[in-house]
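pls design
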């Protein structure tokens, strides 16, 4: 009897580096890896989308389009190339009209993309419908992803009151029976995920993925949901998870046992922790389960060798740089007897449905190899690994690392208030950034939600779509000024201006359709990236000509008038006033970007601008003076 086969989607070059190293893997390092990927035989390679278009421009000053083209050119169709799309949010942080979606999908497929994995952070089917239809129409493969999340933990009941009957009753009073807390309604049941998958298949999804971005699928839930998906959809089923809270390896084993068609993995040095399981460990377990991994493990070994050097280049973003896993080649290295016994113990427990034993055995295997232990903080806060690593990297860059623990503890509260949204980009960024804002509020003695970012306001308003549970009208009133839900109106979308850049020869900022798409998707990031390109071209054309820029000096005398200060650390992306301007209370005088979210800086009272201390792209700290009034 022929072995059952398991297809592999390799995540190393997109989700792996995003989860572990804040999406800082450069094109130079990727180019070194690609020749070895040609022979690896992966069914799919995830190489684009997600945070890549933003991050490669924002942090690496590289072109997202060049990244996709370079991979497609070397791979020559040997593996299907996939990207991650946030549906109506595409690769950005707000809803976009179909013209922007279709423009990106068309260019991506033209430049070598095959599979587009499409999800919506709210699991709102209306937000993925058009993307699935477009991808199929343009000749791509639409992969419909259902985002896994969990119901909130029941709130602890209030302490039972003490019966007070007379003096001794007060001293020795017996506690009255506390009324048991009502069992909260279960929202995220197996039926909930299956219904979403069936709807996506009807629209045209050619693959269905259970997307467990936070690694919260336990082994028992993996068994339930994967078997239910296999029974209810006809297209291949893919399982995507992370190891952050400690379930990833065990749940992947249960997915294999329950018939999953495609499994998402990373190569050794980019695996484990807040990323997906290592293909090398999956290979060991698959051998024992008599399942054939459809990948060339010798070629994977060559990738692994080169990947170690790539990881070393990312040391500044590596939370485990000083405690990396032990090297391991499953084709050459014999497992020690005790580790072999743990592998056998895990498989026996999996087949018997003994999930505690399965987890214990898998943790023992991972501990032997030196993969990170389950992250209890992440497990409690129920956040994705990529969200966690990005919060760490961005707070570090803003000199605000001490806010991390407070913000993580606040995430469950912010998530409930916003309609119990699953935490996956962009909602993970929105909720994470807002949790930082609430942490700042509490440190300053302010009421919660005194600071709100623009995207959180839009989410609560209803502009991102229907949340899994309705936002309470009184909370919506507090955040948006109205209790009414107001969906996003794509007809009101305005194409960003493509300005002329006078300092670089009066050329347009975006010079071709690809660049214009970047400007439409991520205007603030793309402006800086495209200005750098125009500057390079201008200087290359006129190497001897030097332009002297005279900057207006700001009076550095003492601040004596009323001021506007930075409420949080971040970067100024827009300044809307100048010296001498008269402003009204509530007027937006600047926009501050913190943790990739935009925050309006508003005037607290009417006044006349005396001095402006900021300019675009300037980093500012908490309580730094931005504007002074007369």
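designed seq:
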């Amino acid at each position: 009897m022929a072995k059952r086969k398991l297809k592999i989607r390799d995540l190393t070059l997109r989700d792996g580096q995003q989860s572990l190293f804040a999406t800082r893997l450069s094109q130079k390092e990727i180019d070194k890896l690609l020749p070895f990927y040609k022979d690896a035989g992966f069914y799919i390679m995830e190489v684009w989308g997600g945070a890549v278009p933003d991050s490669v421009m924002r942090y690496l000053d590289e072109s997202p389009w060049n990244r996709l083209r370079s991979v497609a050119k070397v791979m020559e169709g040997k593996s299907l190339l996939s990207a991650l799309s946030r549906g109506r949010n595409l690769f950005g942080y707000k809803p976009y009209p179909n013209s922007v979606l279709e423009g990106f999908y068309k260019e991506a497929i033209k430049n070598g993309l095959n599979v587009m994995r499409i999800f919506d952070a709210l699991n709102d089917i209306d937000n993925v419908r058009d993307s699935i239809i477009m991808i199929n129409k343009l000749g791509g493969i639409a992969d419909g992803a259902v985002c896994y999340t969990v119901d909130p933990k029941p709130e602890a009941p209030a302490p039972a009151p003490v019966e007070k009957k007379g003096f001794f009753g007060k001293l020795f009073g017996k506690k009255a029976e506390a009324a048991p807390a009502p069992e909260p309604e279960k929202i995220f049941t197996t039926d909930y995920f299956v219904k979403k998958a069936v709807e996506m298949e009807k629209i045209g999804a050619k693959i269905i993925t259970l997307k467990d971005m936070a690694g919260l699928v336990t082994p028992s839930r993996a068994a339930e949901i994967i078997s239910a998906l296999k029974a209810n959809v006809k297209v291949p089923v893919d399982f995507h998870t992370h190891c952050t809270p400690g379930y990833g390896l065990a749940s992947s084993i249960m997915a294999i046992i329950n018939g999953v068609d495609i499994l998402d993995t990373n190569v050794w040095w980019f695996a484990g922790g807040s990323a997906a399981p290592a293909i090398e460990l999956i290979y060991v377990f698959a051998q024992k389960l008599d399942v054939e991994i459809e990948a060339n493990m010798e070629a994977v070994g060559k990738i692994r060798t080169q990947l170690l050097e790539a990881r070393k280049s990312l040391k500044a973003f590596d939370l485990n740089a000083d405690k990396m896993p032990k090297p391991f080649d499953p084709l050459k290295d014999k497992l020690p007897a005790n580790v072999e016994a743990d592998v056998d113990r895990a498989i026996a427990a999996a087949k018997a449905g003994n999930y505690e034993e399965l987890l214990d055995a898998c943790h023992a295997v991972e501990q032997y190899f030196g993969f990170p232990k389950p992250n209890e903080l992440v497990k409690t806060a129920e956040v994705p690994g990529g969200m966690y690593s990005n919060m760490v990297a961005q707070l570090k860059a803003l000199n605000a690392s001490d806010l991390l623990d407070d913000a993580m503890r606040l995430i469950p509260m912010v998530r409930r208030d916003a309609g119990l949204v699953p935490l996956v980009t962009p909602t993970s960024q929105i909720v994470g950034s807002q949790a930082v804002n609430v942490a700042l509020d509490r440190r300053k003695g302010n009421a919660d939600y005194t600071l709100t970012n623009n995207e959180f306001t839009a989410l609560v308003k209803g502009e991102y779509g229907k949340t899994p549970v309705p936002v309470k009208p009184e909370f919506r009133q507090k955040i948006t000024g109205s209790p009414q839900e107001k969906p996003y109106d794509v007809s009101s979308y305005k194409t960003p201006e493509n300005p002329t850049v006078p300092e670089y020869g009066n050329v347009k900022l975006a010079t071709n359709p690809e660049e214009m798409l970047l400007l439409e998707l991520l205007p603030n990031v793309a402006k800086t990236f495209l200005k750098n390109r125009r500057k390079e071209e201008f200087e290359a054309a006129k190497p001897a000509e030097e332009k002297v820029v005279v900057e207006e000096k700001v009076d550095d005398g003492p601040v004596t008038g009323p001021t506007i200060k930075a409420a949080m650390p971040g970067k100024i992306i827009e300044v809307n006033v100048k010296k001498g301007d008269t402003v009204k209370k509530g007027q937006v005088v600047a926009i501050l970007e913190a943790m990739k979210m935009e925050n309006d800086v508003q005037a607290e009272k009417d006044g006349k601008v005396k001095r402006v201390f900021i300019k675009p792209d300037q980093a500012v700290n908490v309580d730094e003076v931005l504007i002074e009034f007369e």
